[in-house]
């Protein structure tokens, strides 16, 4: 693989290397005992093979234990993984539309739907909510990790390598395999309460887990999580006239409280209930029946649009307006989500078999409140159903594995199998009044004689013309072979064939992996593989109207009305849209592992991921020429248009370094030290030429403009370093983590408006004390020293975005919590 030579990042690399070296120095003098976490046997990326630990694996893998999940103090699996994994990032705000409800994650610099999520080794379904109008994770339809109960998790295995040949579509950046608890006795209950240092964002999190025996030494493990999170707001003061208009002053502008007038800059209100079960019952002749399920209900509420009292949308000048003090439009989402899997596994004719069926569904209902359709006038309703979006996925698997003696010291491990997957995506229309144009004319005031734009303030409901459904089938077969050719050399090879309906066609993917032990405890490892990701159904047919940032005008953020167009519509094709193709990837990984004793491990892995025909959102296309096309196809004037396209080829290069050491301190207990580092850089290798349809409209129209290019390459930190210690002594447990988030840039089409945010150090501390054998109390803080992003953001008129949008550690400041846990 080509060397990484970016001079700009050499200081980050050197600093990380020095930190890792420093953390390993106690190794020479420490008396060590075996560390079970370092010797965890992993199953991800190892179909049917002999047991392998993290250091034995030919591909880089992280193992996260249930204890680590708990000690972060975070609520929600996405937040937890962002705290524990240097290659995993979660932006504070990743864009408009519904992207705030299911925030888009990135892993190794790639989007969330380029990561495959498994639960107990079975494919997890994606959310129904596409990250429309997102700037980070643009066009992604990821798995909503927050709908998996944390109390149900035994551990998580994160494969940081391409694995499409082993698991299928989406496994480009890696695989997250969530392993559920299998305990058959006892349980736990936990309650935590947290609040930001500014006195807002109150969050209550409660969990319970219980295990019981089943016939024939089987088990049933039950889990339940609930979360109630209140919003927080970091908006400054609104500027300009709120009530008056130019030439028409209003005395209320002198007395109104302008601070915090916009309550949308922060997290919204969220209520989540997650439950699960994990069941296994042995049968006759060594066979076992198993089943597991997760089920969730989520409500989210957030202010997503603000209009001044003097705005035409607020019906300024009409004495009967329901919003004389302006509109703070709320978007409310209600999601019902479940996954249920069942199957049998055992042995037949010397082959281990696993036959299973998994059904998953995400059903999201989008509503609006505290808003109106201004074209209907003051009699307009103020709450609406906007749409329903439903995604179903049914996956059937038949897997076989066994070992063969082929004359080598170790047997050949062979696996093969078949998969069928059915997917369906549906969009149902909203209330008639949420999208219909009215003919109300303002009777007086600054807009007398004018009719406001149709649709709702901030967004529109889905009309029957934009509703619809689509389904497809996928069949696949794979093989996976691996063996130790010698005592020192392991070689593995995998291949997969997949065929999609819906004219997507067929694809082949393969993977070669190897590991060579140079000396006891020191080994080289590497992989090369290719992968793919089929266009999601939502990317193909999704259509919506809403408002999003249109960029910077006169030094201030402005919002514009945007219509997301399905690629097969006449208006999209008139703007150059083409049928979406699958993304295709080529991955290289090379590194080494060093494990001289049981309690110490160092792994370093360099990687390169090339993606061809990457699916992204296009530029916001607006102006008279675009408006003319939209109007000709029955859409409102003055809209901006956007669609999804295979617009770019990208290359991501990076390195992962993980260093872990457990030190015994005698009567002072033991400490687990760790230092983990990720550096990655994404470059655009090729951009699709402007389609002729856009060229004909004028040179100002670009398929993929500068702002989108910056969002794809520099909007997330290129480096992330996590230094952590977990100290256990008598009844105390002190967990300290210091994370350095590298710099990132919020770009714009005009370079003068680029904003580079500097690197920040964030400190998290968790102090736990065992009051008894069963009862533990803890106090903690996330962002202990109240660090905020730089105040470099370009603010809107309402005083929002002073800290920008993309901060990987948020902009809420310090968050303090207490936790009470009972184990029985």
Could you give the topology of this structure?
Layout: H1 10-24, E1 61-65, H2 66-71, H3 77-84, E2 88-89, E3 106-107, E4 110-111, E5 115-119, E6 122-123, E7 153-159, H4 164-167, E8 174-180, E9 187-196, E10 203-214, E11 218-229, H5 252-255, E12 269-282, E13 288-307, E14 327-348, E15 351-369, E16 383-404, E17 412-429, E18 468-484, E19 489-500, E20 505-519, E21 522-533, H6 537-541, E22 544-553, E23 556-564, H7 570-574, E24 583-594, E25 600-617, H8 624-632, E26 640-642, E27 644-664, E28 670-687, H9 692-695, H10 706-713, E29 719-729, E30 732-741, E31 744-746, E32 755-757, E33 760-770, E34 775-782, E35 815-823
What does this structure look like?
The protein has 824 residues and is mostly beta strands. The protein has a single domain, classed as Maltoporin, Chain A, CATH 2.40.170.20. Helix content is 8%, strand content 46%. The protein is built from ten helices and 35 strands. The strands form five sheets. The protein has a 22-stranded antiparallel barrel. Strand 18 and strand 19 form a beta hairpin. The longest helix has 15 residues, at 10-24. The radius of gyration is 27 Å and the shape is globular.
CATH architecture: Beta Barrel
Query: Quick one: overall form?
Result: globular
Mean pLDDT: 91
Residue runs with pLDDT of under 50 for 5 or more positions? 1-33
């Amino acid at each position: 693989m080509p060397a990484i030579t970016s001079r700009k990042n050499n200081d980050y690399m050197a600093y990380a290397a020095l930190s890792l070296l420093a953390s390993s120095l106690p190794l020479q003098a420490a008396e060590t005992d075996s560390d079970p976490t370092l010797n965890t046997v992993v199953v991800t990326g190892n179909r049917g093979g002999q047991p392998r630990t993290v250091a034995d694996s030919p591909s880089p893998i992280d193992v996260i234990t249930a204890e680590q999940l708990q000690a972060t103090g975070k609520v929600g699996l996405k937040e937890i993984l962002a705290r524990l994994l240097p290659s995993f990032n979660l932006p504070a705000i990743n864009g408009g539309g519904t992207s705030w409800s299911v925030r888009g994650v990135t892993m190794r610099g790639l989007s969330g739907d380029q990561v495959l999520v498994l639960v107990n080794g079975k494919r997890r379904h994606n959310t129904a909510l596409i990250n429309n109008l997102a700037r980070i994770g643009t066009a992604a339809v990821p798995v909503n990790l927050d709908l998996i109960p944390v109390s149900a998790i035994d551990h998580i295995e994160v494969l940081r390598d391409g694995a499409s040949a082993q698991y299928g579509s989406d496994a480009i950046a890696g695989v997250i395999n969530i392993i559920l608890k299998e305990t058959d006795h006892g349980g736990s209950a936990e309650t935590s309460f947290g609040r930001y240092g500014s006195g807002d964002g109150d969050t209550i999190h409660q969990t319970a887990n219980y295990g019981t025996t089943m016939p024939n030494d089987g088990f049933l493990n039950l889990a339940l999580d609930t979360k109630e999170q209140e919003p927080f707001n970091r908006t400054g003061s609104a500027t300009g006239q709120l009530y008056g208009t130019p030439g028409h002053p209003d005395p209320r502008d002198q007395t109104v409280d302008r601070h915090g007038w916009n309550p949308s800059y922060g997290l919204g209100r969220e209520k989540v209930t997650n439950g699960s079960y994990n069941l296994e019952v042995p049968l006759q002749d060594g066979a076992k029946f198993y089943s597991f399920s997760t089920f969730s209900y989520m409500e989210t509420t957030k202010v997503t649009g603000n209009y001044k009292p003097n705005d035409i949308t607020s019906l300024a000048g009409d004495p009967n307006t329901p919003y004389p003090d302006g509109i703070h439009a709320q978007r409310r989402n209600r999601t019902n989500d479940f996954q249920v899997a069942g199957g049998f596994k055992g042995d037949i004719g010397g082959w281990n078999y696993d036959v299973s069926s998994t059904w998953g569904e995400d059903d999201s209902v989008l509503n609006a409140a505290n808003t109106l359709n201004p074209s209907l006038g003051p009699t307009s309703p103020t709450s609406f159903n906007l749409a329903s979006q439903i995604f179903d996925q049914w996956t059937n698997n038949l897997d076989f594995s066994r070992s063969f003696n082929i004359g080598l010291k170790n047997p050949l491990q062979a696996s093969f199998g078949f998969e069928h997957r059915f997917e369906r995506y549906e969009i149902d229309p909203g209330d008639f009044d949420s999208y219909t144009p009215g003919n109300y004319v303002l009777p007086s005031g600054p807009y007398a004689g004018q009719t406001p734009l149709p649709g709702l303030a901030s967004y529109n409901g889905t009309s029957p013309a934009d509703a619809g459904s689509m389904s497809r089938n996928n069949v696949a077969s794979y093989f996976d072979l691996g063996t130790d050719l010698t005592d020192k050399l392991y070689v593995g090879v995998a291949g997969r064939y997949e065929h999609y309906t819906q004219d997507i066609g067929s694809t082949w993917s393969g993977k070669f992996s190897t590991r060579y032990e140079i000396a006891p405890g020191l080994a080289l490892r590497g992989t090369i593989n290719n992968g793919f990701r089929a266009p999601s159904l939502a990317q193909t047919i999704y259509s919506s109207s809403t408002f999003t940032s249109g960029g910077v005008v006169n030094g201030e953020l402005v919002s514009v009305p945007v219509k997301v167009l399905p690629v097969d519509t006449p208006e999209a094709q008139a703007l150059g849209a083409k049928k979406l193709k699958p993304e295709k990837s080529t991955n290289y990984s090379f590194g080494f592992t060093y494990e001289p004793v049981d309690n110490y491990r160092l792994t370093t892995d360099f990687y390169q991921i090339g993606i061809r025909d990457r699916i992204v959102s296009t530029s916001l296309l607006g102006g008279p020429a675009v408006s003319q096309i939209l109007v000709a196809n029955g859409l409102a004037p003055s809209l901006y248009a956007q669609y999804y396209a295979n617009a770019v080829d990208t290359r991501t290069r990076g390195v992962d370094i993980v260093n872990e050491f457990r030190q015994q301190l005698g009567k002072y207990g033991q400490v687990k030290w760790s230092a983990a580092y990720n550096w990655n850089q994404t470059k655009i290798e090729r951009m699709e030429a402007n389609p002729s349809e856009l060229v004909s409209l004028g040179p100002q129209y670009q398929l993929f403009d500068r702002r989108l290019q910056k969002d794809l390459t520099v909007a997330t930190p290129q480096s992330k370093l996590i230094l952590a210690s977990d100290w256990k002594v008598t009844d105390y447990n002190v967990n300290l983590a210091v994370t350095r988030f590298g710099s990132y840039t919020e770009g714009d089409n005009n370079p003068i408006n680029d904003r580079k945010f500097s690197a920040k150090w964030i400190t998290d501390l968790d102090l736990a004390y065992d009051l008894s054998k069963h009862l533990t109390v803890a106090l903690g803080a996330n962002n202990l020293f109240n660090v905020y992003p730089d105040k470099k953001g370009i603010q809107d008129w309402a005083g929002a975005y002073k800290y920008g949008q993309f901060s990987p550690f948020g902009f809420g400041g310090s968050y303090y919590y207490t936790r009470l846990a009972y184990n029985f």
